[in-house]
Specification:
The chain is an all-alpha fold. The protein has six helices and no strands.
Amino acid sequence: MVLASWLGVVLTLASLPGIWFMLLVAALCKWWQPDLLSWETLGAVALLAVVAEIAEFFSSAVGAAKTGGSRSAAWAAVVGAIIGAIAGTPFMPVVGTIAGAVIGAGLAATIVELGIHKKPWRESLKVGGGAAAGRLVAVVIKGVLALACATILTIAALA
């Protein structure tokens, strides 16, 4: 349980479903050894997993919107982050994934503002920067929540 929890943190930082991996292993441990973890522990980790997903999904969109971006730029940032994470992974597994997601969110939002909404370069780049910053914030938030989940599960398993 402890090893799976900390592996989940690494997976989360690589933009993979690490928190869900932790929760799956915890549920299997609960099934196998019912006294190892409480239902409250599993519920707390599940709640943090949902919060992490919501924060990750909407962060690029919020970053784009806060800098004056359109709704379509916000959605493009979400899609761009996913594509960028996939494209960046082969170059350098964890760092490339994060960098790819940040660059993808920013690039997609910028392209939409330039191409579809015909905004000037400066304005479009501002929106793209906001989307990229939002994505970076999401990585930090999700990483912190993954650390919290791993800590909760470790303490619960060793108590």
